[in-house]
Amino acid sequence: MRPEEIIIKPIITERSNSELEKGKYTFKVAKNATKVQVAKAVETLFNVKVLSVNTMNVQGKVKRVGAHEGKRPDWKKAIVTIDTNPQETSYLTKGGKEVKVNKKYSASIDEFMGA
User: Fold this and answer.
1) Helix (H, G, I), strand (E, B) or coil at 110
2) What is the pLDDT of residues 38-79, one digit of tens each?
3) Which H/E stretch holds residue 25?
4) How crowded is residue 89: how many other Cβ atoms within 10 Å of its Cβ?
5) 14 in a domain, yes or no?
6) Within 10 A of 35 (CB to CB), how many other CB atoms are there?
7) How far apart are CA 63 and CA 93, in angstroms?
8) Predicted TM-score (pTM) of this structure
């Protein structure tokens, strides 16, 4: 699946807005998406470093209109924690030479609030 198919839309509630300061973003994702797929999709779409992904299946509510009763569809929610202070990483090669990798990651998702 492509990243655009995995991340359906952001979930903007009072609770999700309060979690933004901690680097936690909430998304509605495809029901068959795994945590690894969600992490890669967020990294690809928003150019951020994902630290962890928590997913949960949300059961659809039962609604009624007059005498008719129906059920809304079930959906999946993902809470993605990103690195708010990305730094360069370094590692040693076989010869003992230190190599630094400095990928340019964003510290926040600016598109989340429609900015």
Assistant:
1) helix
2) 999 999 999 899 999 999 999 999 999 999 999 999 999 999
3) strand 24-29
4) 10
5) yes
6) 15
7) 60
8) 0.81
